[in-house]
């Protein structure tokens, strides 16, 4: 089920849109844009949350990564 969302655009813009009504389905175009924008905003939100979590993690002492890599290589 869908709902109606209406927007106001300047008369000049509507006139320009009408010029391309045979080539572009404006409803579909706007729906796709909104979906794309929402995906982008969700990604940004997730990245902010990940950064917040990472900032709360304790600092790793220098050399720990080297030590783990050596241990992993030596285990083969």
TrEMBL record:
InterPro entries: VapB3-like (IPR039709). This is Transcriptional regulator, CopG family. It comes from the Archaea. It comes from Staphylothermus marinus (strain ATCC 43588 / DSM 3639 / JCM 9404 / F1).
């Amino acid at each position: 089920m869908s709902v109606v969302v209406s927007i106001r655009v300047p008369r000049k813009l509507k006139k320009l849109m009408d010029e391309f009504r045979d080539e572009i389905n404006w409803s579909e175009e706007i729906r796709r844009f909104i979906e794309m924008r929402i995906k982008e905003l969700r990604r940004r939100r997730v990245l902010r949350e990940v950064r917040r979590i990472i900032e709360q993690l304790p600092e790793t002492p220098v050399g720990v990564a080297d030590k783990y890599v050596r241990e992993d290589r030596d285990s083969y």
